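Input chain follows. Return structure tokens only.
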Amino acid sequence: MFIKKLYRYNKVLGGLFTLYIISFVVINYKWGLVATPVLQYGMYSSILHINDTQTVYRVEADHVPVNNAGASLTNRDILQIYPDIYARQQQINEDAFATMKKYVGYTGISSGMTIDRYTNRITDSVFLRWYAGCVQRTTGKPVSHLTIYKQDLTWQNNRLQPAGMAVKLYSIGN
């Protein structure tokens, strides 16, 4: 065992390493926080629930739907994940601030924390210009008009079926 060999080699270093491991186990247990590079249990410790309804983002470049199936997995993720993260960014920022304030509060330095440091100042037009560049790199064609729709899908009759109408989220260009 590594710790036993380390302790035999150098008692001080072995004791410090053991104390390091124990301190992070205590932090994980007491705070309910995965705060250690040694043990990453929180990532895999709960059941993944798949909802009946899946949300997808349909992207149209110059009034033509972008073919997600023809894109690489990385580009498909870019087309699907970034609009979702942008739409939820305000809530994500508030959650990050609340979590950090809760855990940093134990140290007494949380008085200097402000919500402004956890808030993105990205506007729709800035995001859409950047995202249009991502779509342009994915399709290999210049994009002068971009529209993003949010569509809920459900699994019926052995295939995904639209659940309601697509909602137009963002549009830029002519």
